[in-house]
């Protein structure tokens, strides 16, 4: 085999990385290179530098160090038993690609992941070397996200957290049983312990020492994880139950849901279907309700059939339709918690309603200017000059929102 | 009398603030103020320029207005200056106007602000540099051409200067050119599209763009909503979009239709080696006879459902020849993370009181009636949940094993759950506190409260009293152990 060019390697190792959903580059420490001694800045909010035709943002150079792997995870394109082409970057190549892309304003930084080669420690050590070179030799002040390897030694994880803005460890699948059957080399308990370890290190780094000096921050943009949706039989209640637990237990910034998507050279163990994109979307909506709208798991899952979210309407609307006795809500008097439950009102809209109604009564026409989606909200609210009359009791209310039944697609 | 205020394309914000301040000081009504914009003041409008020398009155405006104005002045709408000035006038009479999201004039300016901030955001994202020349040593030089909707190059210059600090660059736009050379920012009038040389890195970037795309998830509308076509002509990677879209469905279908292949030969070798290296699963029916063997067996425990939600099992800890065993209820949040018992707030309180009572924790064996953390997730926290009778019974197997291996002379049961596990009932723990009852394997059990109960007493005096009683129980345990050891 002739030696691969950098372009060929990049093709293989970015193709292999596309199944990781995270592209976030926000929420880290503020820093810049105005002093002229380095490259890059980080100002809190992330920037999406391009969008691929799959609608996903491209913020980071998301690549694998290598797609050689000694594990055999059924859902993964890089499993040892797959016949995909293999490639391996040298650490210098990854550093150069990151810096040259960054200089041209293509990216916010690097999201580095890897197949497991030789051993977890050997792999993690190469990844840490890349991050160290970027930070120390090149004074790179952009964003670095390292996918850490659960079995790697504590020293390597400790250094990874000091160099990177974010670290992540994928739980891979919603249940321990699914991990054991589809990723036999991975141990769910080890993954949980690794996440617990990151949480403890992050907490320890925020405490001041006895001299009053603050310890260097550990993964300041937090840790995240990813769950593949639709590869095993887990329903949405199980999936959301697991993410609720993960958020509570390990202080995760994000749980990413990745619709299981056809991969080249798939195994016979998993059915290749169209990725359940709509389901993935509903899970993200439910995740937001759990984290920012005061919903608890029971609110979201109690009204579902067979434990799965309604694919035709969003979970907040589904809750409102199942709990009509709470509506209509008066936008001029209702408390914040109740406003947050109105379909069509986002957190920003609710804040604006609360700010404006301190000065005057809100009329129906005001609400559009406040950012509300009245198509949804109007059936659930009263305002000066507006009452939904009998709408809320109408049997056909759901039909107003759900799309008309489609003819079965043959594909 | 009509006054004319002329706004230059460079330094627009400072010019507008200055003119607005002077207009207000002189009491000029919005309808008497004519705002012009351009490189040179136009001779078309007749009116009196604002006087240069006027007394500066102290003026306070809400911070939110300053933020609004600092974006809206860069908008391309010719009316923006007049609209801002009119709002400023109204602000002096109407308190709280800035919070009124329903006011139509403010809403119009907010909409303009949103267009400017979005345009700025897209410029930060979609500017593409090309390397102009590579001379070593020294700072590398890059150039870009961008076509924004509004006059946003100037306000973005500091952002690019903070980001690309170690290189020289110039970003040309039709409205203004911003550049950065050896640490100095410069702003010059707009220009035509410059001719930058080809940059080989663009081919690598396009390779990345093509391969990070997942053809099975085609969502063209979502892409265009965030990356409208008007930006495409200055972004090298977008040339490959039509081709990616055209072939997506066929590529996705090919992946589904492809028959599974046989794994490569080397995969068997690697998987066999990995299987050999894995330790065999622990047999849970074996009776472990050392603490090490016991904790390995506990790690694989599936006797009740609690293992599924906890991070890890928290086995008892202490010397194998300890004469006293302390039994609590279950691990808490901290114990679950660390895998060691009694390290959280309740454990720390226990340590303090035990030391006061003359009880050396390091010589005792500390453990829990239930070895996995049971909790209810609530937001970012885990709320302790009491284990039920079935879970206590399932875990008794491990507590019995610890007792068999350690063979303590005295057990201290803290709280109702430990009492239930060790004496068969957890009822009436306050009445039984301080009593010594017969326990498993003929070992006496001294009953007391759990330290987390002390932490939950809000009233300081009551807490101090309960803590003193708890300390008394531990002192009694030390004394009792001395008589039992004689």
UniProtKB/TrEMBL annotation, chain A:
The record's keywords, sorted A to Z, are:
DNA-binding, Iron, Iron-sulfur, Metal-binding, S-adenosyl-L-methionine
Ranges for domain Elp3/MiaA/NifB-like radical SAM core: 59-286
Name one molecular function that GO assigns to this entry: iron-sulfur cluster binding
The superkingdom of the source organism is Bacteria
Cofactor field = [4Fe-4S] cluster
> Which positions are tagged coiled coil?
none
What is this protein called in UniProt? Answer: DNA-binding protein
This protein's species is Profundibacterium mesophilum KAUST100406-0324
From TrEMBL, chain B:
Under SMART domains, the record lists:
UDG, UreE_C
Q: Does the keyword Iron-sulfur apply?
A: yes
Alphabetically ordered keywords of this record: 4Fe-4S, DNA damage, DNA repair, Glycosidase, Hydrolase, Iron, Iron-sulfur, Metal-binding
Boundaries of each Uracil-DNA glycosylase-like domain copy?
315-471
A GO MF label: 4 iron, 4 sulfur cluster binding
The protein's name in its UniProt record: Type-4 uracil-DNA glycosylase
Q: Which GO terms describe its biological process?
A: DNA repair
User: Is Transmembrane helix one of the keywords UniProt gives this record?
Assistant: no
Q: Show the taxonomic lineage.
A: Bacteria, Pseudomonadati, Pseudomonadota, Alphaproteobacteria, Rhodobacterales
- In the record, which residues are listed under signal peptide? none
InterPro entries named in the record: DNA_repair_put, DUF4130, UDG_Type-4/5, Ura-DNA_glyco_family4, Uracil-DNA_glycosylase-like, Uracil-DNA_glycosylase-like_sf
**UniProt superkingdom:** Bacteria
Family indicated by similarity:
Belongs to the uracil-DNA glycosylase (UDG) superfamily. Type 4 (UDGa) family.
């Amino acid at each position: 085999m002739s030696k691969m060019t950098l372009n060929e390697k990049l093709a293989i190792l970015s193709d292999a990385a596309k199944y990781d959903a995270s592209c976030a580059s926000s929420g880290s420490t503020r820093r810049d290179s105005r002093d002229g001694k380095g490259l890059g800045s980080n100002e809190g909010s992330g920037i999406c530098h391009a969008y691929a035709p799959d609608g996903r943002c491209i913020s980071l150079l998301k690549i694998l160090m290598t797609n050689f792997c000694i594990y055999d995870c059924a859902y993964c394109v890089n499993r040892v038993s797959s016949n995909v082409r293999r490639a391996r970057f040298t650490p210098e190549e990854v550093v150069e690609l990151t810096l040259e892309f960054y200089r041209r304003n293509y990216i916010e930084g690097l999201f580095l992941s890897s197949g497991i080669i030789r051993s977890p420690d050997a792999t993690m050590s190469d990844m840490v070397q890349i991050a160290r070179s970027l930070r120390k030799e090149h004074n790179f002040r952009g964003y670095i996200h390292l996918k850490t390897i659960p079995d790697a030694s504590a020293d390597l994880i400790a250094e990874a957290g000091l160099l990177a803005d974010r670290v992540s460890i994928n739980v891979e699948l919603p249940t321990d049983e699914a991990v054991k059957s589809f990723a036999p080399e991975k141990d769910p308990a080890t993954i949980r312990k690794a996440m617990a370890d990151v949480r403890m290190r992050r907490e320890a780094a925020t405490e001041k020492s006895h001299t009053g000096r603050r310890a260097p921050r550990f993964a300041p943009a937090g840790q995240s994880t990813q769950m593949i949706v639709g590869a095993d039989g887990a329903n949405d209640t199980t999936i959301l139950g697991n993410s609720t637990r993960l958020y509570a237990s390990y202080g995760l910034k994000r749980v990413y849901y990745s619709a299981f998507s056809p991969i080249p050279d798939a195994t016979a163990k998993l059915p290749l279907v169209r990725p359940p994109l709509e389901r993935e979307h509903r899970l993200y909506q439910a995740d937001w309700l759990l984290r920012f709208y005061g919903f608890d798991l029971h609110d979201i899952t109690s009204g579902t059939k067979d434990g799965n979210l309604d694919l035709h309407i969003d979970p907040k609307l589904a809750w409102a339709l199942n709990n009509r006795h709470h509506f209509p809500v008066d936008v001029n008097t209702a408390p914040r918690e109740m406003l947050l439950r109105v379909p069509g009102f986002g957190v920003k809209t609710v804040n604006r309603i609360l700010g404006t109604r301190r000065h005057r009564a809100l009329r129906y026409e005001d609400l559009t200017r406040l950012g509300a989606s009245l198509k949804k909200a109007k059936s659930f609210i009263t305002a000066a000059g507006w009452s939904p009359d009998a709408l809320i009791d109408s049997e056909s209310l759901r039909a107003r929102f759900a799309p008309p039944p489609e003819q079965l697609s043959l594909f | 009398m009509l006054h004319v205020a002329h706004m230059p394309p460079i330094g627009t914000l400072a010019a507008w603030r200055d003119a607005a301040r002077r207009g207000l000081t002189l009491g000029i009504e919005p309808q008497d103020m004519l705002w012009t914009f351009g490189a040179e003041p136009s001779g078309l409008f007749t009116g009196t320029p604002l006087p240069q020398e006027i007394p500066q009155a102290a003026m306070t405006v809400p911070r939110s207005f300053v933020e609004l104005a600092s974006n809206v002045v860069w908008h391309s709408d010719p009316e923006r200056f007049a609209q801002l000035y009119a709002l400023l006038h109204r602000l002096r009479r109407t308190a709280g106007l800035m919070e009124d999201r329903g006011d139509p004039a403010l809403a119009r300016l907010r909409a303009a602000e949103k267009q400017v901030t979005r345009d700025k955001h897209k410029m930060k994202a979609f500017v593409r540099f090309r390397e102009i020349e590579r001379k070593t040593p020294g700072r590398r030089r890059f150039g870009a051409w961008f076509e924004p909707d509004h006059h946003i190059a100037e306000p973005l210059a500091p952002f690019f200067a903070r980001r690309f600090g170690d290189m020289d660059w110039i970003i040309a736009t039709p409205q203004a050119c911003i550049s950065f050379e050896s640490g100095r920012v410069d702003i010059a009038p707009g220009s035509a599209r410059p001719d930058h040389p080809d940059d080989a890195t663009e081919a690598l970037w396009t390779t990345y763009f093509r391969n990070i795309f997942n053809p099975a998830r085609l969502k063209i509308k979502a892409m265009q909503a965030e990356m409208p076509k008007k930006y495409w002509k200055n972004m090298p990677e977008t040339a490959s979009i039509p081709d990616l879209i055209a072939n997506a469905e066929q590529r996705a279908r090919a992946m589904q239709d492809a028959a599974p292949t046989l794994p490569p030969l080397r995969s068997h070798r690697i998987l066999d080696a990995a299987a050999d290296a894995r330790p065999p699963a622990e047999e849970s029916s074996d009776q472990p006879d050392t603490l090490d063997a016991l904790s390995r067996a506990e790690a694989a425990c599936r006797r009740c459902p609690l293992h599924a939600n906890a991070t890890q099992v928290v086995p008892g800890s202490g010397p194998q020849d300890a004469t006293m065993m302390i039994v609590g209820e279950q691990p808490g949040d901290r114990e679950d993370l660390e895998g060691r018992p009694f390290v959280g707030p309740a454990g720390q309180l226990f340590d303090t009181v035990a030391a006061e009572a003359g009880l050396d924790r390091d010589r005792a064996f500390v453990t829990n009636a239930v070895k996995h953390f049971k909790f209810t997730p609530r937001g970012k926290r885990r709320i302790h949940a009491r284990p039920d009778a079935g879970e206590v019974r399932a875990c008794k197997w491990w507590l019995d094993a610890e007792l068999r291996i350690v063979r303590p002379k005295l057990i201290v049961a803290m709280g109702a759950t430990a009492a239930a596990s060790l004496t068969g009932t957890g009822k009436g723990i306050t009445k039984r506190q301080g009593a010594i009852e017969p326990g498993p394997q003929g070992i006496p059990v001294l009953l007391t409260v759990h330290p987390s109960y002390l932490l939950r007493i809000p009233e300081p005096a009551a807490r101090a009293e309960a803590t003193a009683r708890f300390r008394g129980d531990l002192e009694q345990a030390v004394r009792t152990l001395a008589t039992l050891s004689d």
